Amino acid sequence: xxxxxxxxxxxxxxxxxxxxxxxxxxxxxxxxxxxxxxxxxxxxxxxxxxxxxxxxxxxxxxxxxxxxxxxxxxxxxxxxxxxxxxxxxxxxxxxxxxxxxxxxxxxxxxxxxxxxxxxxxxxxxxxxxxxxxxxxxxxxxxxxxxxxxxxxxxxxxxxxxxxxxxxxxxxxxxxxxxxxxxxxxxxxxxxxxxxxxxxxxxx
Length: 203
Fold this sequence. Notes:
The protein has one domain (2-201): Jelly Rolls (Sandwich). The chain has four helices and 13 strands. It has helices at 32-39, 167-170, 175-180, 187-201, and strands at 2-5, 11-15, 18-21, 24-27, 47-53, 58-64, 72-78, 80-87, 98-104, 109-113, 117-123, 128-134, 143-145. 16% of the residues lie in helices and 37% in strands. The longest helix is centred in the last third of the chain and has 15 residues, at 187-201. The protein is of the alpha+beta class. The strands form three sheets. It has a six-stranded antiparallel sheet, covered by helices on one side. A five-stranded antiparallel sheet has the order 9-8-11-6-13, with no helix packed on it. The two termini are 28 Å apart.
């Protein structure tokens, strides 16, 4: 397993090592020791989510208030998705920037996003199956979205897809509107949260 940081700081892509024989294939898709070594603290697993999406289905951009925020570990077991991380931390040097990774079942990899980052993906194939481990339980009053088609974000959605959204995602505010409404986490809040997690890990 090889791990490297994405263009958005505090997010990572993990290239996984599949092992195959005549029976099929086996992949270790999550290793707490490898991830913890990079983060400096242990990823706390509170909930595991699973979605199955038709081609063109777009989910996000989603984020949670900090503290506590919600870190995510994302893996595509079947099909293919374009997974996007967005820096929505007000005051971050890379605020508004994004990075994208193709996750698919043929070349297995995973993405980790720290608390305070925005997340979205679009399905590039029918029945794409995505599993994501999250660090906090679902809390509807603390989870929000940003319009995935906001021109200010210029996210790299494929132009050959007929995109479909949930009504909630399509009605989400733009990045500027989210800033004006005070919805977004600050870099200061996120840095304090990361420091808190590192402190908890060494006690």
